[in-house]
Amino acid sequence: MLGTALGPHSTGQTTVTSLAVANPGSLIQSVDWVAIAPPLIAALAALAVLVTDLFLPARHKKWLGRLTAAGLALALISLLPLTGGSPRATFCAQNVTGATDNAGCSYVADHFALVFQLLALGGALIAALLSAHTVDDEKLPGGEYWFLLLASATGAALLPASRDLATLVIALEVASLPAFALVALRRDGRGAEAALKFFLSSVTATAVMLLGIGFVYAASGSLHLGAVATGLEQAPAQLKPLAEAGAVLTLVGFAFKVAAVPFHFWVPDTYTGAPLPVAGYLSVVGKAAGLAGLALATTIAFRPYAHTWGLALAVLAAVTMTVGNVGALRQRFDTRFSAVRLLAWSSVGQAGYLLVPLAAAGYAPTATDPLGATAAYALIYGVVNLGAFGVVAAVGRRAGTSVDDFRGLFARDRWTALALAFFLLCLAGLPPGVIGLFGKVVVFRAAVDAGLGWLAVVMAVNVVVALYYYLLWTARLFTPAEETEAAPAPERRLPVSLTATLGLTASAAVVLSVAPQLVLQVVGGSLF
């Protein structure tokens, strides 16, 4: 009977186990639809684009891009009801060992999740605006392109709110698998080669991460992040080596998404072979997804090993920023696609800066304090880096994508040149790009406060080194073009979507430079 409690009942010599429960209604999950609205709306928009593409005539395919932008904008708006209140959780398991508050829930819409969802969905929206002309100019399959972009954005929005290792892996793969296809949509040898390198390296990293998760589950007995931390603290001594190895292997997959050394080698070739908007999307949204996963895994699940992963991330940050900046210094300016490759190496160096507060979280009394610095810098980097990719796309329509093609840009198009100069100065951390300087100071302070003085010194040296190639590129914009150079292609009017992208990113960078406290308000307080 339904009212019978779960338990064994003896009938003669046979023991019968009743599968009934005292309160069957407790088995029914109550889904908080408002909490899951951001990734859910992006997923529904992806399905809408996929179905609409089947019935839409070829001459009306442009509406798919508008539908994509509208879906992402609606997903961003759905973040508003989640702000200002207590965290909302759903998909919660009953009686999770060690669970406190929302520790037994698989999806938690807290401040941390909202900040990174803002970055993921906002970056995807800017990438969608940047993609509108690229789909037409390069004759990319529109339906597939917009569906894949929305699908990847769905995974990137789901990942920051995930609170168990299984959901983290699923979200990471949902963000990554469509990205492979996006890179390969360009129908030439470069696109296929870039996608293959991206795919093989990502699959390897994912396999290693899954092995690590298996080790962690065996040692802790749970997949929920909070329960994993409790399980690791109470694990028998003979399981400690297994747990430590599992923690290291689990972080590999997220380190790949962040493009941390030695998982960075795919970046320059993939960015060069992919359509420019896809490269910009990977540099911001893909990196944001990896950072969110890395932060959740370290500060919650692997909290008992804080000093171990804190030191490991500190070394990783130092090596990553150094390799990225040295690679950018070695990049020749006269080669084809050198502007894209320079931004690719720059993104590797910036990944090193982003890892600094995560390393500091391993030494801070409260692990969530330095995470605000990572979130602040990620928001700043996302705006200016997507803006830089937008300018490269604009110049590529008229001239080319080598750095030397930007020579004399101020004389040809002063507003585009000024926008790129401002973006580069923000990345370098120089006035008038105050917001870039502000971001670097926040990250530098996180390292100093955590007692990582040596890492702060390495970061300061790398910032000075990076000034060279950022300023050299900026100087090209105002250098008169050589008379021996070929005449530039006739000026082409920029598409409305591309103009909107440049205007949006430049305006956001200027506003944040004037009022950097806006970023502090977004990431202020406890992220968890």
UniProtKB/TrEMBL annotation:
It is found in: Cell membrane; Endomembrane system; Membrane. It is a multi-pass membrane protein. It catalyses: a quinone + NADH + 5 H(+)(in) = a quinol + NAD(+) + 4 H(+)(out). Keywords: Cell membrane, Membrane, NAD, Quinone, Translocase, Transmembrane, Transmembrane helix, Transport. It comes from the Bacteria. Its EC number is 7.1.1.-. Pfam families: Proton_antipo_M. Residues 162-463 form the NADH:quinone oxidoreductase/Mrp antiporter transmembrane domain. InterPro entries: NADH-Q_OxRdtase_suN/2, ND/Mrp_TM. The chain crosses the membrane at residues 33-56, 63-82, 112-133, 145-162, 168-186, 198-219, 245-267, 279-302, 308-330, 342-363, 375-396, 417-439, 451-473, 494-519. NDH-1 is composed of 14 different subunits. Subunits NuoA, H, J, K, L, M, N constitute the membrane sector of the complex. Belongs to the complex I subunit 2 family. HAMAP family: NDH1_NuoN_1. NDH-1 shuttles electrons from NADH, via FMN and iron-sulfur (Fe-S) centers, to quinones in the respiratory chain. The immediate electron acceptor for the enzyme in this species is believed to be a menaquinone. Couples the redox reaction to proton translocation (for every two electrons transferred, four hydrogen ions are translocated across the cytoplasmic membrane), and thus conserves the redox energy in a proton gradient. This is NADH-quinone oxidoreductase subunit N. It comes from Kitasatospora putterlickiae. The gene is nuoN.
